[in-house]
């Protein structure tokens, strides 16, 4: 038994193996529609399995956490802190993305005749019909029917309802204890199911990446390889430097966070989905010493608002496309673009394909052809893998910082768990 365990692969390594197998199969079955269909179904099934448990975990964990907190004023303070933190970090991400793209000037090196345009009609339609301002987003937070919000998977209305329900439970005292006990059992059950689902993660990852490579082909990546490299280099810089410095200001180490959530980051990278990591992130934040009420609130909210990776990508892509068309943007035009991107990204919060929708709704304001976005749509999935990693680690950093600022953090528990995870490396 000991010999078997010594050779047992961790979840992270299993997922990476699934990624490699998926890439190989995708290249082997390039443009094979039967393979693409089967791989897509396998990948989508895994995503659906995780999506199945996300909202029950968010609701049960958040309701219990808020009920135990039992303080409306404290909840309001946490909410304001969280949103301010998200806004500051996402603004920095936008600026870094635009700055790097300006310095590198890689767009001018691209030959537009070598690029194939991808159909973006669905994104254009979404850009026209989605929320276009912050006010409409704030209004959409209040659900008219909580079951409808659950059915559509709208995270913010669920968070809002759960917070109110938790406060209501706290206000009725002992009468609400039976509901709290029930929801604690629901939460524990959902986390157990999540553990079971993660056993098929390598298969799901192989399906998702296999279908992507089979559709695109490896040769299609060459014309935009410089953009892909620039995007990943910028994201790595943001994690190590910006999130690193932010963590140090509050007494944390970004390396510790990367070690603790490495499996979740690998999962986020290979699936290009933040949602699949949400249950495990909430669990990990508790193991890192953050009170469950903080993690249950900050992480789901960050799933909608704290999208640093997406902000970096949007800043990079907007300037890159302008350069590809040899459009010179003055400082005032770029400042206008920054403001529009910031506002539009909040207005599109929670929209499917939000990164692309934000770009389509923003670039036209400074004269960049919206049709140019179609030129980079083909590699969106590959860049999305990187920006999802930034979003996930950004949410973990935010949870630790908000928890510590509210004195809802246990340093001893944090240090012990970090040390435990270090020994597993």
TrEMBL record:
Q: Name one Pfam family in it.
A: SDF
Any single biological process term in GO: dicarboxylic acid transport
The protein's UniProt keywords, in alphabetical order, are: Cell membrane, Membrane, Symport, Transmembrane, Transmembrane helix, Transport
Coiled-coil ranges per UniProt: none
Gene Ontology CC annotations of this record: plasma membrane
| Superkingdom of the source species | Bacteria
- Where does the protein principally reside? membrane
Keyword flag Lipoprotein: no
Q: Where in the cell is it found?
A: Cell membrane
Record GO terms (molecular function): symporter activity
- Spans traversing the lipid bilayer: 12-30, 50-70, 82-104, 155-172, 193-218, 224-245, 356-377
Q: How does it sit in the membrane?
A: Multi-pass membrane protein
For this protein, the record's PANTHER family field holds: PROTON/GLUTAMATE-ASPARTATE SYMPORTER, PROTON_GLUTAMATE-ASPARTATE SYMPORTER
* Name of the molecule in the record: Cation:dicarboxylase symporter family transporter
Source organism: Ligilactobacillus ubinensis
């Amino acid at each position: 038994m000991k010999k078997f365990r010594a050779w047992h692969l961790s979840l992270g390594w299993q997922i990476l193996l699934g990624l490699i197998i998926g890439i190989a199969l995708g290249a082997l079955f390039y443009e094979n529609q039967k393979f693409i269909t089967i791989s897509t179904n396998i990948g989508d099934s895994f995503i659906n399995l995780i999506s199945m448990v996300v909202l029950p975990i968010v609701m049960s964990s958040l309701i219990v956490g808020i009920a135990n907190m039992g303080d409306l004023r404290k909840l309001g303070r946490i909410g304001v802190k969280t949103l301010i933190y998200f806004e500051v970090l996402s603004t920095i991400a936008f600026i870094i993305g635009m700055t790097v793209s300006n310095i590198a000037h890689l767009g001018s090196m691209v030959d537009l005749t070598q690029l194939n345009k991808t159909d973006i009609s669905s994104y254009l339609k979404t850009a026209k019909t989605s929320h276009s301002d912050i006010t409409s987003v704030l209004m959409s937070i209040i659900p008219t029917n909580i079951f409808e919000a659950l059915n559509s998977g709208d995270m913010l209305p669920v968070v809002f309802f759960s917070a109110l329900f938790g406060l209501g439970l706290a206000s009725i005292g002992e009468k609400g204890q039976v509901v709290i006990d029930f929801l604690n059992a629901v939460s524990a059950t959902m986390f157990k199911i999540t553990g079971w689902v993660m056993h098929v993660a390598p298969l799901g990852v192989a399906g998702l990446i296999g279908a992507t490579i089979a559709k695109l082909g490896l040769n299609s990546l060459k014309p935009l390889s410089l953009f892909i490299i620039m995007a990943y280099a910028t994201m790595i810089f943001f994690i190590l430097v910006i999130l690193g410095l932010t963590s140090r200001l509050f007494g944390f180490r970004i390396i510790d966070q990367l070690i603790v959530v490495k499996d979740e980051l690998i999962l986020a990278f290979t699936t290009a989905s933040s949602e699949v990591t949400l249950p495990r992130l909430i669990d990990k934040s508790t193991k890192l010493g953050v009170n469950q009420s903080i993690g249950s609130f900050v992480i789901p909210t960050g799933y909608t608002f704290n999208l640093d990776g997406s902000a970096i990508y949007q800043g990079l892509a907007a300037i890159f496309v302008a350069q590809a068309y040899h459009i010179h943007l003055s400082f005032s035009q770029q400042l206008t673009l920054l403001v529009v991107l910031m506002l539009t990204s909040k207005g599109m919060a929670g929209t499917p394909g939000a990164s692309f929708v934000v770009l389509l709704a923003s670039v036209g304001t400074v004269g960049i052809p919206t049709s140019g976005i179609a030129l980079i749509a083909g590699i969106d999935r590959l860049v999305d893998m990187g920006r999802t990693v930034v979003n996930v680690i950004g949410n973990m950093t935010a949870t630790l910082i908000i928890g510590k600022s509210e004195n809802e953090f246990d340093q001893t528990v944090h240090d012990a768990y970090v040390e435990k995870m270090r020994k597993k490396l």
